[in-house]
Amino acid sequence: MSDIAHYFSPIKFSAESFHEESFAHNFVVYSSHFPDLENIDIALIGVYEDRLATSNKGCATAPDEVRKHLYNLFAGSFSPRVADLGNIMPGHSESDTFYALSETIDYLVRLNITPVIIGGSQDLTFAQFKGYEKLEQTINIVSVDATFDIGSAESELTNKTFLGKIILQQPNYLFNYSNIGYQTYLVPQSSISMMTKLYFDTYRLGQIRDNIAEAEPVIRHADMLSFDMNAIKHSDAPAHEEAQPNGFYAEEACQMMRYAGMNDKLTSLGIYEINPQYDVQGKTAYLAAQMIWCFMDGFYNRKKDFPSRNSPDYTRFHVFLQDNKYEINFYKSNKSDRWWMEVPYPPDKNLKFERHTLIPCSYKDYEIACKDEIPDRWWQTYQKLY
Predict the structure, then answer these.
(1) What is the gyration radius of the CA atoms in the chain, in angstroms?
(2) b/e map of 340-371 (b: 16 or more CB within 10 Å)?
(3) Do residues 27 and 116 make contact, with C-beta atoms less than 8 angstroms apart?
(4) What are phi and psi of 373, to 5 degrees?
(5) E-strand spans in 73-185?
(6) Engineering a disulfide at 295: which of 102, 179, 261, 333 sits with its beta carbon 3.0 to 4.6 angstroms away?
(7) In a 10 Å sphere around its CB, with 0-12 CB exposed, 13-18 middle and 19+ buried, how is residue 210 labelled?
(8) Terminus-to-terminus CA distance in the chain, angstroms?
């Protein structure tokens, strides 16, 4: 039996009522015996925890609601090797639940299995982050969220302060945080200023909705992704106590999840804040199921095309800026047409940052550089390294 089996409770499940070609017959599901994880690529994890939700109590019951719709879907052109590990039930305290989740993530990532967490409240992102603590590497977090969830230094950990706790975590192994989809009228200016001072990347809702493809290089930089379903507008995802009239459309959420799946370096995904008591005909749970489908579709279409400086599979471009003060090398994949750019690495710095010197970008960044302007993405990484 697996080292993590004791953290999980089986789910009530029978494949008989589902179509024979549906996920219900494709997944290995913990209904009686804990799944054998050999040859598994993706592990589904339900987490029944919402005690730290300052609002939206009831979201702990979301995992099984999402499963009802997920099991009904069909694989399409990919053959999923997915295990549903069941549910992590509430521990004696919230910290017990967090410990079970972080230990599970650590265990799965070491096995090269990607956990997909179905919460539960978004404070579980802190436990998701803690799952990387023993791996001895810096990581990048991307959050799709209408707010930043920072709180103050004195704030207790909740679903609205977890990012602040991640920033203050010691020892700290967070290299970069990126927010996609924040809505300015929901965020204090002090929080926006803090993001700027920390050289974190923030993208307003309208900025991404103007061109959803601009989310791709941001997501491609992530080791872990946290998705607050309240970032999706109420008409498409009503299952939240504070559902917003503005936000992403369902198809945009699905597109971002496909980007996440195609990210070769992403090793965990969390979907949080679905509250079934506010849902309308299961609409939000159904959308979450489709988002997971899109993640899988991207996952099984990974290109494994992270650039090698001497590989013939890439076209390399040199751009000199500001009278040769800066030189930026761009790499375009001949497999996927995706772009990266190189940030010079300080020779006297700790080597743990070295893997961050080649960062995802877009063709738009190359165009900006060709106009003798330094792309924001490049400049923020440069400042962070130096």
Answers:
(1) 21
(2) bbbbebeeeeeeeeeebebbbbbeebbebbee
(3) no
(4) -115, 140
(5) 82-88, 114-118, 139-144, 174-182
(6) 261
(7) exposed
(8) 47
Residue corresponding to tokens 């579709």: 297
CA nearest to 102, candidates 129, 135, 138: 129
> How confident is the model over 151-166, as pLDDT tens digits?
888 899 999 999 999 9
Residues facing 130 on adjacent strands: none
The Cα diameter of the chain in Å comes to: 69
3-class secondary structure, 72: coil
Name the DSSP class of 65. H
Per-domain boundaries in the chain: 5-299, 314-385
- Answer whether 53's CB lies under 8 Å from 272's CB: no
CA distance 118 to 121: 9
Residue 91's CB: how many other CB atoms inside 10 A? 16
d(CA 247, CA 234): 8
**d(Cα 291, Cα 276) in Å, to the nearest integer?**
17
Which CATH fold would you assign to the domain 5-299?
Arginase; Chain A (3.40.800)
Report whether the peptide linkage leading into residue 171 is cis, meaning its omega lies within 30 degrees of zero. yes
Whole-number mean pLDDT of the chain? 94
* CA torsion through residues 307, 309, 314, 318, sign: positive
Look up tokens 């697996």; give the residue.
2
Nearest to 60 by CA among 271, 237, 227, 273: 273
Residues 160/243, Cβ–Cβ less than 8 Å: no
Q: What are phi and psi of 198, to 5 degrees?
A: -85, 0
pTM: 0.94
Alpha carbon 170 to chain centroid, angstroms: 22
CB 86 within 8 A of CB 35: no
CA 247/CA 238 separation, integer angstroms: 11
